[in-house]
Amino acid sequence: MTWFNKLPRLAQIILLLIPGVNWIVEIVVRWSTWLKKGGLLRLIICIIVTIPSGIIIGWLDMIWCLLFKKLCFQ
pLDDT tens, 29-49? Predict the structure, then answer.
């Protein structure tokens, strides 16, 4: 989780822009955040992101990251 937040914003946006890469980044960042912080909402988001339609959530997170420099519900 912290490695993603330490990246420059442009690198974060590029990682979230590429379809296959954004899905993997989403899975790694979401599950590591859930392991550190826990919470039911984070767990639900982790499960939703893990299914292949999580790529669409990755693009939504790209917009969120562009605005707030972190993933939504992180």
Answer: 889 989 998 889 889 988 888
pTM exceeds 0.85: no
Residue 63: how many CB atoms within 10 A of its CB?
A: 12
21 within 8 A of 15, measured Cβ to Cβ: yes
Distance of alpha carbon 58 from alpha carbon 16, whole angstroms: 6
The one-letter code for the residue type at 10 is L
Q: What is the residue type of 4?
A: F
DSSP H helices in the chain: 2-6, 9-17, 19-37, 40-50, 54-68
Instruction: Tell me the residue type at 53.
Output: S
